[in-house]
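Input chain follows. Return structure tokens only.
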Amino acid sequence: MTERTVSRRRWTFAALTAAAAPLAAWSTLSQAQPRDSGAYTILQARYGTAARNVDVTDRLRELAGSDQRFRISNDTFGGDPAPGRTKALRIIARGPNGENRSFDYREGDTVDGQQFAGWRDGRWGQSGYRGGWGGAGNRGDSGELRIVQALYGTPRRNVDVTQRLRDLARSDSRFRLENETFGVDPDEGRVKTLRIYTRGAGGQERMFEYREGSVVDGSRFAGWGRGDWGDGNRRGGWTGR
């Protein structure tokens, strides 16, 4: 074997070794950065609407373990909790700083779990979280106005819906106002409204009015998500401004 042949073989081996080094480094880096390393840890998952929804945490865990992405439909979760209404998947998760956040996906949307920690391993959803549909968004509990009473209907025909509003507030920070919301139509054929009567820290009273189809946002009311209000024994009826 000539000296030129030996030199050429040494050069070829060195070149191959140099080319393999970055590939090995890339392989190590890929293994060190799994795609389940998102910043948010899932606490609970619910499917439906603000008024009607079900816990689908276990089903979501099954989907996450078998696929990185999937499309939302009634078939995905094996049922329709609110027939005739557009539904959503709400994932409540905890961030790196301990704050809760909700991620909403409407019917037809595709869910990609890359932003959630341990997505495919299913190491989540076992925290004992009981916040419900609106638990991640109850920022309205710090409002200055406390609800005293809620009435729904028209000036001539209306009903007290304080208890029902309390139930809605515990499950969601916002909801759309419809007859189905309160399960009653106190004045058929007429446009109805929800009147929420409140009292401020100084004792002053204030009334908020929401027409059918509008969105009620509880962020301005004290204790909204906790539902610790509505026991003010108000008896003023459909009055106030």
